[in-house]
Amino acid sequence: MTGIVAGLVAGIPQVALTQLEAWLLPEAPRESADIGPRFVQRLARRTDADLKREHHWLLAGAFHFGYAGWWGLLYALLQRWRPAQPHVGGPLLAALIYALAFSPWGAATQTGTEAPVETRPTRATLMHWTAALSFSLSLAYLYDRFERPRADVADRVGRWATRA
Predict the structure, then answer these.
(1) Is residue 66 a contact partner of residue 8, using CB atoms and an 8 Å limit?
(2) Do residues 20 and 126 touch, judged by C-beta distance below 8 A?
(3) Is this prediction's pTM over 0.85?
(4) What's the pLDDT tens digit per position in 80-99?
């Protein structure tokens, strides 16, 4: 449960930082950071679904927080299997997310939501990495913070029990 909560919370700075980056980058259209709604729109076209713009945003939000929770759960399971410091686990997770979403074989590239890697502008690649890294690092540090109090309490109880 801790991983899911950390993932859901980490999804917020991911969106905020990517939107801020799109606003700050020269010549980057604002909607270039709106990957989720474009992804839903592409999938709707492929399946001949007739969705309004509002539906794209609603489904993209549900998808965003769904995958955020799922990645949080996966991260928590990996941490229990092979614990890593947040500054190691976060970037490793970011690389996996980037590969599965934005690489030549990634979902956003394969659906045409994002341009092929070889023709993609550098600013788009930068935004993709910002999204993956900001989410993964936030998730890793949040998970670490959420889990640490339990370890601290268990450690204090153990020290107290040995004194008694």
Answers:
(1) no
(2) no
(3) no
(4) 898 889 999 999 999 999 99
